[in-house]
Amino acid sequence: MANTRNNIILVIFSTIAIPIILGQLLNRYVPITFISIPIHSGLEVAGGVIAVVISIIFYMKYRKQSVLTHFNWATTALLAMGIIDIFHASVMPGKMFVWLHSVAVFFGGIFFISVWLKEIEVSKKTYNFIPIVFIVFSILISILSIVFSQYIPEMINHDKTFTTTANILNVIGGIGFFIASIKFLIIYSKTQEIEDILFAGLSMLFGIAGILFVSSVVWDIQWWLWHVLRLSAYIIAFYFLYTEYQKEIEEVDSANINLINTTKELKNSISFFESFQNVTNEGNLVSKSDLHGNIIYVNDNFCKTTGYTREEVIGKPHNIIRHPDNDSSIFKDLWDTIQEKKTWKATVKNRTKDGGYYWVDTNISPILDNDGEIIEYVAIRHDITELINQRDEIERSSQTDTLTGLGNRFKLINDIRDSKSTSLSLSLINIDNFREVNDFYGHRFGDFVIIEFANRLSDYFFGIKNKSLYRIQGDEFAVLNYIDDRDTFIGKIYSIVDEISAKDFMIQDEEISLQMTAVLSFEDDKNTLFTTADMSMKIARRERKNLLIYNKSLTLDKEYENNLNWTKKLKNAIKEDRLVAFYQPIVNNHTQKWEKYESLIRMIDEDGKVISPYFFLDIAKRTKNYIEITKIVITQSFEVFKDSDAEFSVNLTIQDIMDDSLKEFLFQKLEEYKIGNRVVFEIVESEGIDNFDTVLDFIREVKECGCKIAIDDFGTGYSNFEYLLQLKADYIKLDGSMIKNLDTDFDTRAVVSTIVDFAKKMNMKTIAEFVKDETIESIVKDMGIDYSQGFYFSEPTEIPNIKK
């Protein structure tokens, strides 16, 4: 702002003060007369021509805008002045000589006042017409003055001074120029544009030249001064035009440079596109189709995978590779999506020419023209057959008991859930004295007992339809009956219990007698079938009954009493801050560093004893206290690790993820502590995920905060294999029930090896739980598992021993 003020003062001083001072000095100290008609004519003609040229060029330059600004009015005034000055230069000194000069100053000043008019947009016709009016007006004034010179008043006195008429015309014109200069100064103070301050100086020079006219005499030095001032004003205007021309040249140069850069970018884009196309063709199956879905292009990978040649598929519809296993609704959704100009994504099973199949991760997108209309469709497919087959193998393994080959607990739960039957029956069969057999003969011998027991059960049900056999845990088996033949089913279970109990087992030359407990449940609600059977087993074993059939009169009063007792203890522990997070290290198998920690909840009893969550966590899940426990773990572990570089994990169940208050609390803590990049959420769920979209949304949100995801208890009881490809977890935690037997159970080792191999291809890290000794740790490392966790390294502790 100070610079603007200084510029205004400088212009006023140089265009008003200096000319006035200079005029007075010349008038006093150089009182001479210099007569030269050629020089005078040259000055006037030069100024007039410059003014006319400026006006014409200015109007030509801005004619496309058709907007009348203060510059338009100023240049039309210059145009009028310039034309009259040219006529002035063409006459001989005398009355007409002074008259045309004075008229030029007068009308120039009056016309310059028009710069105060508001900016207005006009038609091109009007825009072009305005300078013509000024030209015609100036020419008419000049010609009429010369033709009717007898009517022109006297302009020079006998002493060569100017008459009152001449002085008035010049003074009025000068004042007009000063009024115009005020407008330019006001505009400059707002815009700081150089052309505004230049035109302000031009106006002041014209104004002071008009005022100095009054104190001068024809041909004296002061008279020549104001001629020079007028020419200087014209030169200033011309300089403005020159600067505008320079700007245009710079803009053209800049535009050329931009064009060159754009051309380079375009060439780079073309090169990138060609490289991208090569990469796309290299690893994917690419095809194009017309608006009717007929194939118009396929790449080499498409032909290699499908077995078709280009000639066999070009012009054919894409359903030539459609596998009959796909539901028709998939393809309806496909067409609905791409015709809405959106990209369709899905995992699809396709058919090869020889009747085989392959799985692809598919993206189909419409290609649009400049008008946004679809001209063709492009399909890019990535072959994931190997991953799908491995997933299927893992899912099969996850539902199979590795020791007996029977279905496991996970498969039983799924079969009950997926069954269409309305008459399900379930029997659980437990070996009563199996622990003693294990303890006395050893685990290896116990495995042979389990295998033989499973074989006998299988023999009893061999060839019988609508029944499935499972080993659901160590010494417990299950039989699922799908048809409504309850009496027959009860009789069969009775006979099994009697016959197996009566006949000893011969295992490695050892004769073993086994006793069993069997229960049956005929619940109409399949959601409670397993629960009621399991409850019946607890009651039967407690009451030492060989066989028990569930009915609603059966209760677990003592269990309920125990639950109520622990519920009360849990409530008091929360109230008294006796729930404490403990931390167990997770060790990097490559570096042996303690890099991570799992946060685990413990209860501190009134006497200071540390209580395992085994006693209260399941009860908490059935009350409102469970969410509070999760919040306690989050709060304490965030506080413990806030100043550490170590990564730590917090267990979350589906119940946690579905609770809005817990999620709000969690994201608040992530925002408060800013340590999301060191937080891992272990998703714990044994019964599968019903609200899968909600879980995916949660995973996406926490990953945006930098957090990682681990899947807990992988390999048993968790339906993660169905969702694994979509969950995009960072870690897979291999269930401890598999890890702890790696040294004796080679079938389990094969399953773990398959899971590890699959995880590596999915770019997921693996963590082995329940590493109990050096032998297990050595096997784990040899199998390529990334991390280990277990008592071999450390029990969970209240204060983590963070090792660098």
Automatic annotation (TrEMBL):
Q: Where is the GGDEF domain?
A: 422-553
What Gene3D superfamilies does UniProt report for this protein, alphabetically?
3.30.70.270, EAL domain, PAS domain
InterPro entries from the UniProt entry: Biofilm_reg_signaling (IPR052155), EAL_dom (IPR001633), EAL_sf (IPR035919), GGDEF_dom (IPR000160), Nucleotide_cyclase (IPR029787), PAC (IPR001610), PAS (IPR000014), PAS-assoc_C (IPR000700)
Segments spanning the bilayer are: 7-26, 32-59, 71-91, 97-117, 129-148, 168-186, 198-218
EAL domain span: 563-804
- SMART domains named in the record: EAL, GGDEF, PAC, PAS
The record's keywords, sorted A to Z, are: Membrane, Transmembrane, Transmembrane helix
Q: Does the keyword Transmembrane helix apply?
A: yes
Question: Can you name this protein?
Answer: Diguanylate cyclase/phosphodiesterase (GGDEF & EAL domains) with PAS/PAC sensor(S)
